[in-house]
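Q: I'm building a small set of examples for a reading group on sequence design. Run inverse folding on the following structure and report the sequence directly after it, with nothing in between.
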């Protein structure tokens, strides 16, 4: 997907290439994003004219996931047990931000070529996360019509990436922190979930009751 900036309006450039994730025992998914943002100025007639490049960045290391899965399934009389785990490695992207001083209304590639160089304080090397995500599921048949189930698991969510544009467009934050300090503070959203179910079958239907509990450390939240 690509969008090319044009004079007279705000525009952004996003170029993404991704490999699809497959349901294999081991999988890998990568993506690369390059982005830039033009800042327009309103005119007396109400239209917009190009002012300057507000942000010019380039991904220099791709955002990458690697996972290995293991699972076991066993029946013990009335009890069925499934247990498994996923070991996940996530490499956050490394991003260089370029000086936009003196760059006119040109294409993204031309803007990169015209830049005087990378701004180190606004660029960052992505950290690497390693997480073990176990899973346990139990199913017990009390009688031919009644089943109990219990699922317990540790789940993974992406870090709060929206902190990046908030930081880049906030001069007060940039004066206090470097982009690397912001990037290093990111944490994945981990959740711990418990699910309970009781199902009773009847001749003309069934009754099912469920209970669900989840805690979510490092929940992403933007305050800007």
């Amino acid at each position: 997907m690509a969008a090319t900036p044009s004079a007279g309006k705000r525009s952004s450039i996003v170029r993404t290439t991704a490999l699809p994730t497959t349901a294999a025992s081991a999988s890998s998914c990568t993506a690369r994003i390059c982005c830039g943002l033009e800042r327009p100025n309103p005119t007396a007639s109400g239209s917009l004219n190009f002012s300057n490049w507000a942000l010019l960045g380039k991904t220099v290391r791709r955002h990458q996931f690697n996972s290995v899965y293991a699972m076991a399934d066993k029946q013990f009389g009335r009890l069925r047990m499934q247990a498994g785990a996923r070991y996940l490695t996530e490499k956050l992207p490394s991003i260089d931000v370029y000086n936009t001083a003196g760059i006119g209304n040109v294409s993204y590639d031309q803007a990169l070529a015209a830049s005087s160089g990378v701004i180190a304080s606004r660029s960052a090397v992505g950290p690497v996360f390693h997480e073990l995500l176990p899973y346990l599921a139990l199913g017990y048949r009390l009688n031919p019509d009644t089943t109990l189930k219990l699922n317990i698991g540790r789940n993974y969510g992406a870090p709060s990436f929206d902190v990046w544009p908030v930081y880049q467009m906030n001069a007060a934050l940039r004066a206090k922190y470097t982009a690397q300090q912001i990037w290093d503070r990111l944490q994945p959203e981990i959740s711990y979930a418990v699910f309970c179910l009781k199902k009773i079958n009847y001749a003309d239907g069934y009754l099912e009751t469920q209970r669900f509990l989840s805690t979510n450390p490092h929940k992403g939240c933007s305050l800007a």
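Helices lie at 108-114, 163-168, 171-176, 179-184.
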